[in-house]
Design a protein that fits this description.
The protein is an all-alpha fold. It contains five helices and no strands. InterPro entries: Intra-flagellar_transport_57 (IPR019530).
Length: 114
């Protein structure tokens, strides 16, 4: 019962925060994902990143909705590694079962060095 009350309170605060930002705030993440996808397409991510790893193209809302966190995390790491390499830095492609904390630490470390 206590957990239910806490979650309800968090949900109400989240809804209040969305209302304060305006009615379109709830859809902002979808707009950001569509912009991201457009930019990835301009960089030919489908040919260069996805085909190399035998992955499917992203949907318009792939990262906007939490559907399969493990798969989404691996896709994020794959794209991050590809983008870092595309920017001219050698970066080892993470494997699906690598420690997530180590992978993120490596990505952040590389981005800080830019």
């Amino acid at each position: 019962e206590e957990g239910g009350v806490g979650r309800r309170g968090e949900r109400e605060r989240s809804e209040e925060a969305s209302a304060e930002r305006g009615p379109g705030a709830a859809f902002h993440m979808f707009v950001l994902m569509e912009d991201l996808l457009d930019k990835l397409k301009l960089l030919s991510y489908e040919e260069e990143a996805l085909r190399r790893h035998n992955m499917r193209p992203l949907s318009r809302h792939y990262f906007a909705l939490p559907t399969n966190p493990g798969e989404q995390f691996f896709m994020f790491c794959t794209l991050a590694a590809w983008l870092i390499t595309k920017a001219g830095r050698p970066f080892e492609q993470p494997q699906e079962y690598d420690d997530p904390n180590a992978v993120i630490s490596n990505v952040l470390s590389e981005l800080r060095s830019f």
